[in-house]
Amino acid sequence: NAGVMQNPRHLVRRRGQEARLRCSPMKGHSHVYWYRQLPEEGLKFMVYLQKENIIDESGMPKERFSAEFPKEGPSILRIQQVVRGDSAAYFCASSPSTAYEQYFGPGTRLTVT
Amino acid sequence: GESVGLHLPTLSVQEGDNSIINCAYSNSASDYFIWYKQESGKGPQFIIDIRSNMDKRQGQRVTVLLNKTVKHLSLQIAATQPGDSAVYFCAGAGGSYIPTFGRGTSLIVHP
Q: Which of A102, A108, A109 to probe the B interface (max B CBs under 10 A)?
């Protein structure tokens, strides 16, 4: 059973460009969570989605950031007009239900130049 | 909201010793705690969890202790091995299923 997959693993964008991060949950998992991690920091929750629904986006910046989890295909975290402060590792996790145990992907490391 | 933190940023131990990583939390409503291990360049990996109605839980070579009186939990790793070298995070969760992570403790195991 493949784990949570994220791509790309590394992404470099210039200021003002758009970044799209993809997450494919584990098979059978319909709950997806996105986190951001700055160097030497813990993970900060951004958004929690189920298929076609955003359940909790309390950790998501109000502007430039959006997330979706369509009926078909991976979950997408989209960052428009990236700035240097967006440089971080972005992790996706999935769970089979509304449960505490989440399985994390390897992360996407975004660098904004 | 929840505030979760670890006492020490770095812990160095000798291979074969036992390791103890500590964590404090602030929200009395937290009813679930998780320990994660994160190796360099990888995502967090679930180690062990404990619910607030327990004070101890054991896994393979790991034990988590929860002291609700002082809002403290610890992760004990027996016979620490070089493969245990990583950053360890504690996380707490309350009514929502969204864990709040602490900053992490880097465990360095010397052969």
A: A102
Nearest chain A residue to B93 by CA: give it.
A100
pLDDT digits (tens, 9 = 90+) for B21-49: 999 888 777 888 999 999 988 999 999 99
Q: Is A14 helix (H, G, I), strand (E, B) or coil?
A: coil
Are A43 and B49 within 8 A, CB to CB? no
A15-69 per-position pLDDT tens digit: 999 999 999 999 989 999 999 998 777 899 999 999 889 999 999 999 999 999 9
Measured CA to CA, the distance from residue B28 to residue B100 in angstroms comes to: 13
Residue A65 C-beta-side C-alpha neighbours within 13 Å: 16
A97 close to B (CB below 8 A):
no
| Backbone φ, ψ for residue B84 (5° rounding) | -85, -10
Query: Alpha-carbon torsion A74, A54, A32, A109, what sign?
Result: positive
Report the gap between the CA of B19 and the closest CA in chain A (Å): 20
Cα distance between residue A72 and residue A53, in whole Å? 13
Distances (CA, A) of A113 to A38, A87, B31: 16, 9, 41
Cα A75 to Cα A25: distance, rounded to the nearest angstrom: 8
